[in-house]
Amino acid sequence: MKRIIENKHPLAIRWFHWVNFPLLGIMIWSGLLIYWAWHPYKIQVGDWVLVNFFPDWLFIALKLRRRLAEGMAWHFVFMWLFMINGLFYVGYTWVSGEWRYLMPDRHSFREAWEVVLHDLGIRKLPPLQTKYNAAQKIAYSGVILMGLGSLLTGLAIYKPIQFAWVTWLFGGYTSARVIHFALTMGYLLFFVVHILQVIRAGWNNFRSMVAGFDVIDYGNAGKSERTDA
Amino acid sequence: METPENQNEQTPDLPPREELTTVQQIRRRTIKAFALFGAASLVPFGVWKWIQREPKVNGLPKTFRAVLGGNEAIASLFLSHSHLAPTFPLDEAAKKVRVNGSDGMKGDFDPATWSLKIEQTATGEANRSFTLLMEDIRSLPKVEQVIEFKCVEGWSQIQHWGGARFVDFVEKYGVGTRSGHPAQSAEDWYQYVGLETPNGGYYVGLDIESALHPQTLLAYEMNGQPLTGPHGAPLRLLIPVKYGVKNLKRIGRIFFTDQRPRDFWHERGYDYFVGL
Predict the structure, then answer these.
(1) Is residue A13 domain-resident?
(2) Residue range of the domain that includes A137
(3) Which long-range contacts (CB under 8 A, 24 or more apart) does B125-129 make?
């Protein structure tokens, strides 16, 4: 058996990924400090409340109450770093050609479904994979679009008069606020699935996001097995 | 073993040694990368600790105040009197207008004996102070507007207000300029306007640009009726280009100055500008 080191993630990609992690964390945390001051959002069917964003105990447990001024300050300071890091990431993937690994194509949605079936243990055959499988392509491209959405809806809420046309694009001030919040819930959902998949994919895959390389074992038959998240 | 990897790659007749070297290399690269990763992850903790320890200015770390000042400078670049708050049809205006806060409105107050103090401190002719009555404000052209009022807390409401444009008021009474005459240049305006309730318990400061915005009103009507007490009778500020915190109720004093007036919520950790 032969082990091969293969470079997988360029330094720039790893840098943007890990810088984004605390930055997005701060944006979500400070966003919750802001949201506490008025937290009306619910998912309900008729009078039946499915999800309440959020119950009081959560605000208490996370010490999110009566910190609006602090939340706004953090949000409007770190928004710049979050935006700059995101723009550099997009710029880099564009210039370096990395976007080719990320952009879904017309087969991706069918293939992504196969990935889901495989990951749930229903489908035995491993899905097609280059650097990322189809589900990853959709998820990772999607989260970049979400980032853009957060920046634009953020601007729509932050300066709803100077940029009234942006606010109008998102259906008005209250609507832009709902979308901004929904995107944040989307990140939390993304985070949960992402962490589970990283755990599932194992050490080799996690290491590749830190050290940049992948180790591929070529067995006797010369075939490789890679699982990635 | 210090042998470079590519030399090993060229000697396939020594497979056990090659495998060992590859494993070593994996180990070395992994340790190096994770050591750097560990060191780098201390940076956010360092930043966090540094922010916690920084001296505070009006409740916020000094650096945050500096960045918010930068945000204000950027916002001022695209602040324009031609950027108007969207207006709405009259029937969309809330019948029950939300009351939020009564700071500076405690104690006895009689609207009938109310008067408005106007002050500007400067050398010479422009140094003036006088009082106005409701009839003086009512003598200005009346404007009605249905706008979306936005609270810093996050809620907003479409509301119907009536009153006099702030810009009409300064022009008619010849205040706001250092020369004491209608402004010939942008530099002639005082940089700030301060407003206070009669008991001084609530106070705001505004940049002159926002105060002179065509939708900034000295409001005395709500839903076509005279203002009620909790909404700031007899006269309040209605400034759609700012969050609700700047929309001071029950104005007792208006003054023009080049020093940034103190501001109630700014002293309590909020941004000074809060422009929308």
Answers:
(1) yes
(2) 2-218
(3) B125/B179, B125/B180, B126/B177, B126/B178, B126/B179, B126/B180, B128/B175, B128/B180
Helix residue spans in chain B (DSSP H): 5-9, 15-53, 62-78, 134-138, 166-173, 208-211
ipTM: 0.89
User: Buried b / exposed e across A43-71, counting CB within 10 Å, b at 16+?
Assistant: eeeeeeeeeebbeeeebeeeebeebbbbb
Q: For residue B9, what is the nearest residue in chain A, using CA coordinates? A: A4
Mapped onto helix, strand or coil, the DSSP state of residue A216 is: strand
Whether residue A96 lies inside any domain: the answer is yes
AA letter at A151: L
Centre a 10 Å sphere on the Cβ of residue B55 and count the other Cβ atoms it contains: 7
pLDDT in tens, chain A (229 residues): 677 888 899 999 999 999 999 999 999 999 999 999 999 999 999 999 999 999 999 999 999 999 999 999 999 999 999 999 999 999 999 999 999 999 998 988 888 888 888 888 888 888 877 788 888 999 999 999 999 999 999 999 999 999 999 999 999 999 999 999 999 999 999 999 999 999 999 999 999 999 999 988 876 444 444 555 5
The model's pLDDT over A24-51, given as tens digits with 9 standing for 90+, comes to: 999 999 999 999 999 999 999 999 999 9
Domain count, chain A: 1
d(CA B192, CA A192): 49
Q: CB of A4 within 8 Å of any CB in chain B? A: yes
What is the rounded CA–CA span in Å between residue A177 and residue A182?
9
- Residue B6 to residue A163: CA distance in whole angstroms: 58
Residue with tokens 């942008």: B186
First CA to last CA distance, chain B: 64
Of B37, B71, B155, the CB nearest to A38: B155
CA atoms within 13 Å, Cβ hemisphere of B262:
9
Q: CA of A168: which chain B residue's CA is closest?
A: B86
Quickly count helices (H) and strands (E) in chain A.
Answer: 9, 4
For B240, the 3-state DSSP assignment is coil
From B33, which residue of chain A is nearest by alpha-carbon distance? Answer: A211
- We report the CATH number of the domain holding residue A66 as 1.20.950.20
Strands (E), chain A: 2-7, 42-45, 48-52, 213-218
Does A229 map to a domain?
Answer: no
Nearest to A160 among B78, B271, B276 (CB): B276
Kindly determine whether residue B33 and residue A211, on different chains, have CB atoms separated by under 8 Å.
yes
pLDDT bin (cut points 50, 70, 90) of residue B20 is low
Q: Which of B8, B30, B207 to mutate to test the interface with A (most CBs of A within 10 A)?
A: B30
The pLDDT score that the predictor gives to residue A1 is 60
Domain assignment present for A228: no
**Residue B117 · residue B131 · CB < 8 Å:** yes
